[in-house]
Amino acid sequence: MRGYNREDIGYVSCSGLPSNDGSSCNAEELIGSRVAFANAELRFPIIRRYGARTSLLGGLPPIDGLFFYDAGVAWSKGQTVSLSQPTDYDFSKQRALLRSYGFGLRMNLFNIAIIRWDWAKPVSRPNGKGFGTWFFGASY
């Protein structure tokens, strides 16, 4: 999920205590044998090829902009799932819906691959800062 750092997988730093604002939680919650995910994305053209290839913008690959909202949860057998994080949250026994929003750019690299850049803000981490990520490959 965009907005949750997958590099932190394996490190447990989410206590779930009311004194913990959730900003130190990591991507451990993204691991499970079952998953549900939803994405709403609005894409719009920024640069398109118009007319002859001799024009100034004719040689540039198409670039799209986008706004998105992601929501998802991963859980395993024996864990309960809820839409919001309860006050006595223990991610080893419970899982809550994680959400994020943001914007991005997509560039079609001559129909070979897609270069993506996304900036995402994790909603489920109250003091979590947004960050950008690059990706080179197929786009969904």
Automatic annotation (TrEMBL):
Zinc is among the record's keywords: no
Q: Which residues form the Bacterial surface antigen (D15) domain?
A: 1-137
Query: What does UniProt give as GO cellular component?
Result: outer membrane
- Cell compartments where the protein resides: Membrane
Q: What is this protein called?
A: Bacterial surface antigen (D15) domain-containing protein
Read off the Pfam families from this record. Omp85
Its principal location?
membrane
Where on the tree of life does the source sit, at the highest rank? Bacteria
| Keyword line | Membrane
